[in-house]
Design goal:
The chain is α/β, with parallel strands linked by helices. Helices cover 29% and strands 11% of the residues. It folds into three domains: 224 residues, 3-Layer(aba) Sandwich (Rossmann fold), CATH 3.40.50; 61 residues, no CATH class; 88 residues, no CATH class. Strand 7 and strand 8 form a beta hairpin.
Length: 448
């Protein structure tokens, strides 16, 4: 039963307070009493960070309370006038700075256990001083604000003793629920930067309570914590995407709901902030060098430099190389003596050493001045590689012919034609041999 009730409470809180669910609320039990029973209940019912500080031994001031989103407070022992005023002034300052406070029975008991100072005189509390307590049992009765978040899901609540008594509702506060005898069960006020809730039952002895009291306590804590501005950036806890570090701009590069200043992976690329700093990449950009490959892919899969667009310095960006199929870590993927970027600029194939298949690697052609994209640079009729093999000049078409005529001119000395005689292509010699062999075979068949 307890596990089921805790699960229902946690689910409800996530739905109603998504910001509080994703951000652990810091709560302080500040009481002159044994707070361990309540602390154990709160930690077991919801993901609350609960600290305990005993009174009156602990010095209390606004600065020491400022790290908490909400203070849960009551007194079950005598406070002297100085202690009462100091505690009340510190709570008043906490609320004035946007922090929340949940106050419970005994804190209103005058004169010995009253939390005084500006807390009551300045009307930060919800209820005034009571001359005595009501030690008769009481159950939840009138719901003046039945839709208030503190009352959500509270179907039954019964206190065996120690209730609000004759404490009056202070100006500016609202009673949201009363006992059957109309004593104040729960009250709130929202006329200060921080929120305040009053719970009209004792928190010092959970055994005196029955029903949905844990739900009401947790909901009062969460409701009061919504206005807390723990980091002082002007954004309340309920809306702050980074409540532990000031970020008034609320920048969130990857849109994951966690502010960049406290997001270990602000750009959502899978690399932590420490990894990005070690790599020299921008923690707010998924592709620091804008080369078309995300930083994490470069760092963990390809081995390229995620801070350098062209890792191998060949004139092609890493993303372009991946798309072209070349090696972004090798400036000359086909080992032809030309860098990949140079080949792309020339129109050659960076994946094929001899782009035009003329028996000269592209690098050799550039070195000789021939075109690595043309088999016969000079148009003389012989492939560049053949000319080099025969000791001819692949840039001079005249040495391609035995008669020295220029086959590219409009008329030749050999035949006076207006156009050069047809010349075989790169494999023309082989083709002529094949034709001759076919003709000879036919003649032999006829003779036979």
């Amino acid at each position: 039963m307890k596990a089921r009730r805790a699960a229902i409470l946690a689910l409800w809180a996530v739905l109603l307070w998504p910001a509080a669910a994703s951000t652990q609320v810091r709560a302080l039990l500040l009481a002159y009493d044994d707070t361990s029973p309540l602390a154990e209940a709160l930690r077991g019912r919801f993901d609350l960070e609960v600290d305990e500080r005993p009174l009156p031994d602990t010095p209390v001031d606004a600065e020491s309370l400022s790290r908490y989103d909400v203070i849960i407070t009551w007194t079950n022992h005598r406070l002297d006038a100085r202690q009462s005023a100091e505690l009340g002034d510190a709570l008043a300052d906490h609320v004035d700075q946007g922090g929340g406070v949940v106050e419970a029975v005994f804190a209103q008991l005058d004169p010995d256990q009253l939390i005084g100072g500006r807390w009551r005189q300045g009307q930060r509390s919800c209820v005034g001083a009571a001359s005595g307590l009501t030690d008769t049992p009481g159950s939840i009765g009138l719901r003046e604000e039945p839709d208030h978040p503190i009352l959500a899901g509270v179907e039954r609540l019964h206190a065996r003793r120690h209730r609000t008594g004759d404490a009056p509702l202070l100006p500016g506060a609202r009673a949201i629920a009363r006992y059957e005898d109309l004593q104040i069960l729960a009250a709130v006020r929202e006329d200060r930067p921080g929120r305040v809730a009053w719970l009209g039952f004792t928190l010092s002895d959970p055994d005196l309570l029955e029903g949905d009291w844990e739900r009401m306590v947790v909901q009062a804590i969460l409701w009061s914590a919504e206005t807390s501005d723990r980091d002082g950036d002007g954004v309340a806890l309920s809306a702050d995407n980074c409540p532990t570090e000031a970020n008034g701009d609320q920048l969130d590069a990857d849109g994951d709901g966690i502010g960049d200043v406290c997001d270990d992976d602000a750009d959502g690329d899978g690399l932590s902030g420490d990894e990005e700093r070690a790599l020299g990449t921008d923690p707010l950009l998924t592709d620091t060098d804008d080369d078309g490959i995300d930083d994490i892919e470069e760092a963990r899969e390809r081995g390229t430099d995620p801070a350098l667009a062209d890792s191998d310095g060949d004139g092609l960006g890493d993303g372009d190389e991946v798309e072209a199929g070349t090696d972004p870590l090798d400036p000359d993927s086909d080992k032809d003596g030309l860098e990949d970027g140079q080949e792309i600029a020339l129109g050659a194939d960076p994946l094929v050493a001899d782009s035009d298949s003329d028996r000269l690697d592209d690098g050799q052609e550039v070195g000789r001045g021939t075109d690595p994209t043309l088999r016969d640079t000079d148009g003389g009729g012989r492939q560049d590689g053949d000319e080099v093999l025969l000791g001819l000049d692949p840039l001079d078409p005249r040495d391609d012919r035995p008669d020295g005529a220029d086959p590219t001119s409009g008329a030749t000395e050999a035949c006076g034609c207006l156009s050069p005689p047809a010349r075989p292509g790169p494999s023309g010699g082989v083709a002529l041999v094949l034709v001759a062999l076919v003709a000879l075979s036919r003649l032999r068949r006829r003779a036979g």
